[in-house]
Amino acid sequence: MGIYPQGRKIQHRYADELAGVDWAAFERLFAEHYRQLGYRVEHSGTGASHARYDGGIDIKLYRDDEYIVVQCKHWNALQVTHNYVHELIGVMHTQHASGAILITSGEFSTAALEAAAQCAAIILVDGAEVRRTFETSLPTLVPAPPLLPEVPFPLARAAARPRHRASSDFAPMIIAGSIVAAVLVLALAYMGLQDTPESASRLVREAHPVAMPRPANVAATAGALAADALDAQARNTYKAMRLPNFHRPVDHEAARAALRNLPGVGTTTWIDSQNLLVLVSGQELRSNRMIDDVCMALDPLGDTMGVVVNVQDVMAKTSEAADVLSRNCKLQGNERAMFQVKR
Description:
The chain is of the alpha/beta class and 343 residues long. The chain contains 13 helices and 9 strands.
């Protein structure tokens, strides 16, 4: 992934063929490796399913009485810390697996190695061992299937049961038609700007009254302005419809990493694909200000219209104080985005 948790930099950074593959290919590489070793392989990670979160398991291995869970970390900048060792041990027990393997293309921290030494059922495989495994050459990597937006759970559940109102069948078509119409209008406006230099010059003068571009740059400037307007229109359309942008989902693992050092935040857990549970210690931290801080930290990672932050005080002494405070990152109060269900 592009976002790493806070940790120590690796001591030796590789610059070879393995370092150049993406994280999805890294998962597929080991899925095929274990398949050749005779395991029945279930590739359940995000590199296979394109889901936003893999539940802590990238690959499941079955052979005779063995059931092994595998997590892959294609990290070339920072060491994999002990947190991920403990998390995989927890997943192993939850899954009633007989063993666990944590693989990285880089290095493990000293604390991670010590944590693994306390549990005989977990094996750590670092970048050096990975490269010894594939010391001849990397096998040909089959390209991943094209990335498709994840179907929200409420929509998938609705599709599974018969519907009796014909009008609801056309709702997705109406939404798509509205977006396409907006794009076509702005595209025609952009073409008009290209065909009429006078209009383009007037638009540029209004946008930049001080520094007028040379005539040769007018068309390019007008094109950039039209593209910005198109992007702004798309954002406004998504917001007005309360529709999360499924092309810019917030990656769950990156989100937890981004929140790890946020002041006041204890443990963070994804309840489902859209609801993030944030545990805090103290009523003063169970607040809309905390939700704002969490949303601000997540904003660079994707469209937070698809995220509902749920804050709970683990130190609460009454049932009322233990209630969860919830809010969509981009909406007010109890409002929810399209397809989001209030928990």
